[in-house]
Amino acid sequence: MIPTADFILNRDFNFQSPKVNIVLQNALTRDSSFFDFTKPAEVLLGDSIATNMMMMGYAYQKGLLPLTAKAIEQAIEVNGVSIKMNMQAFQLGRLAAADPARLAAMMKGQDETAPPKALGAIVARRNRRPPQRAPDQLPE
């Protein structure tokens, strides 16, 4: 569950995850399933932002996207931001759909509850990332 505007306005907002899951399960196909992509993104790739691309890989592997893997990978390269991490996240999402037990095994023994990094380490890691381009700075 991701915070919404209601959470910002009301810090005690109750996400009611089980109720939300029931509503979604009733609305989705019988083949629907829930998977926590944030935990493997953080544990295996070190960044929760990889969650989105993992979901893309999962949806692709389930046949829910009318795209080829090559097209998605080319889009990741053209975007030019965290290419290696996004490629790995896409593949891990596919693995989550095809062989969730193998993904779980990859996470075994990893420190899932690592303490927050020191501010200096966070700043150093972000400084190593390529600068993000604003939409008005995109190449023509």
Task: Report what the structure shows.
- The model has no long low-confidence stretch (mean pLDDT 78).
- Helix 4 (51-61) packs across helix 6, helix 5 (69-79) runs antiparallel to helix 6 (83-98) and helix 6 (83-98) packs across helix 7 (100-107).
- It is built from eight helices and no strands.
- The protein has helices at residues 5-9, 17-27, 38-45, 51-61, 69-79, 83-98, 100-107, 119-128.
- The longest helix is centred in the middle third of the chain and has 16 residues, at 83-98.
- Helices cover 57% and strands 0% of the residues.
Q: How much is the average pLDDT?
A: 78
Low-confidence parts lasting 5 or more residues at pLDDT below 50? none
The DSSP helix count reads: 8
**Shape by Cα distribution:** globular
Order of helices and strands: HHHHHHHH
- Helix fraction by DSSP (H/I, runs of at least 4): 55-70%
